[in-house]
Amino acid sequence: MSGRLDELQARLLDGDRRALSRVLSWVENGDARGREMLRRLYPRSGRARIIGLTGSPGAGKSTVTNEFAKVCRARGLSVGIVAVDPSSPYTQGAILGDRVRMAELHADRGVFIRSLASRGALGGLSAATQDVVHVLDAYGKDVVLIETVGAGQDEVEIASTAQTTVLVNTPNMGDDVQTLKAGIMEIADVLAVNKADLPGVDRMVSALKALLSLAPDRDWQPPITPLVATKSEGVEQLVDACEAHHAHLVETGRLADAESARARQQIVALARGRVLANLLNEIGEERLSQLSTAVASRSTDPHSAAEAWVGGE
Ligand SMILES: Nc1nc2c(ncn2[C@@H]2O[C@H](COP(=O)(O)OP(=O)(O)O)[C@@H](O)[C@H]2O)c(=O)[nH]1
Ligand SMILES: [Mg+2]
Fold first, then answer.
1. pTM to 2 decimal places
2. 137 C-beta closer than 6 A to ligand 1
3. Closest atom, ligand 1, to C-alpha of 63
4. Is 160 near ligand 1, meaning CB less than 6 Å away?
5. Average pLDDT, the chain
6. Model confidence pLDDT, tens digit, residues 266-295
7. Which ligand sits closest to the CA of 198?
8. Whose CA is nearest to atom 26 of ligand 1?
9. Can you list the positions of beta strands (E) in 37-177?
10. CA atoms of 108 and 141, how far apart (whole Å)
11. Is 57 in the pocket of ligand 1 (CB under 6 A)?
């Protein structure tokens, strides 16, 4: 067993894509072999630039990710793409123009694309995503791009996995800017305004500037970069903005702090997953059903049922 893992590890580190795929499947599915490979590979990670792209469905995240990858490739960097957005057209369902653009990337051996389907066994989607990122990093990717939908706790956690988070906006969501407010302030390091070929770009840029001016004391002011991803316009500037943010993190010492914060978050998520798995195992399906029935029929309340299960406050 360990001989086979030795061989797989050697192949992966030698750039073998099939070995990489196999390890990623194990890691995603929470297979014990995935954990063993991660243990072996983790010391080799920590070199990649990790960039998250988030935003509403349809904003153009996949298209921007695709173009971002091409610019990185032109700069001589290898790229890993992790698509957490279930609607991402890396494999199917894309309209023709999108598919053609994606196909170019698929043909490039310097790019490895992974769509995450499963939520992993322990610690949920965000823990599985971080593991996948670590493996791609150890594999030697210079840049790892994570595409995720900008809603929900998992996605916010995934965004915090990235060193630099790009929020992909579009002009026609000008009226939604208020709803973006929290997200912008908390997670965005770079604000892309994609679909700049559509009307309303200036209004959107002004709205974003107004939002940013509410927090003028930040030591990093997120740059706003208009883009037309479908025409590859503005993407160089977007990549440069991400580079500038990374340089800022290094200069201020934030990169190391953020790495510790990410590590802490992943440890807690994994520990939570383990504790819960143990508890579920202990109680068993039958007893849990009994408690659920008791709560549903009002013979007890949810808090008391949880207490009957795990005790304490
Ligand atoms: N007009 C215009 N359409 C775009 C642009 N970028 C992406 N799109 C289109 O918007 C749609 C959604 O793009 P996609 O990348 O799948 O968005 P995602 O759901 O955020 O990943 C696709 O049909 C794209 O071709 C752009 O710059 N301008
Ligand atoms: Mg997408």
1. 0.89
2. no
3. 15
4. no
5. 87
6. 898 889 888 998 999 999 999 999 999 999
7. 1
8. 195
9. 49-55, 79-83, 111-115, 143-149, 164-169
10. 13
11. yes
Q: What helix, strand, coil percent values describe the chain, rounded to 5? A: 60, 10, 25
* pLDDT tens string 200-233: 899 889 988 888 888 777 889 999 999 999 999 9
Measured by CA distance, the residue closest to atom 2 of ligand 1 is 195
pLDDT for residue 173 is more than 70: no
Q: What is the pLDDT of residue 160?
A: 74
Residue 22 in this model has a pLDDT that exceeds 80:
yes
Per-residue pLDDT for 94 more than 70? Answer: no
What is the position in ligand 1's atom list of the atom closest to the CA of 85? 21
| Span from the CA of 281 to the centroid of ligand 2 (angstroms) | 37
**63, 65, 105, 233, best to mutate for ligand 1 pocket (most atoms within 8 Å of CB):** 63
Cα distance from N-terminal residue to C-terminal residue, the chain: 44
Instruction: Show the domains of the chain with their CATH numbers.
Output: 44-251 (3.40.50.300), 267-310 (no CATH)
Q: Residue 52: pLDDT band by 50, 70, 90 thresholds? A: very high
Q: Which residues lie closer than 8 Å to 127 by C-beta, 6 or more apart?
A: 120, 266, 269, 270, 273
Three-state SS for 117-142 is CCCCCCCHHHHHHHHHHHHHHHHCCC
Query: What is d(CA 162, CA 146) in angstroms, rounded to the nearest whole number?
Result: 8
Phi and psi based region of residue 55 (left: phi greater than 0; alpha: psi -120 to 50; beta: remaining): left
Widest CA span in the chain: 66
How far is Cα 84 from Cα 115, in angstroms, rounded to an integer? 6
CA–CA–CA angle 60, 62, 63 (5° rounding)? 65
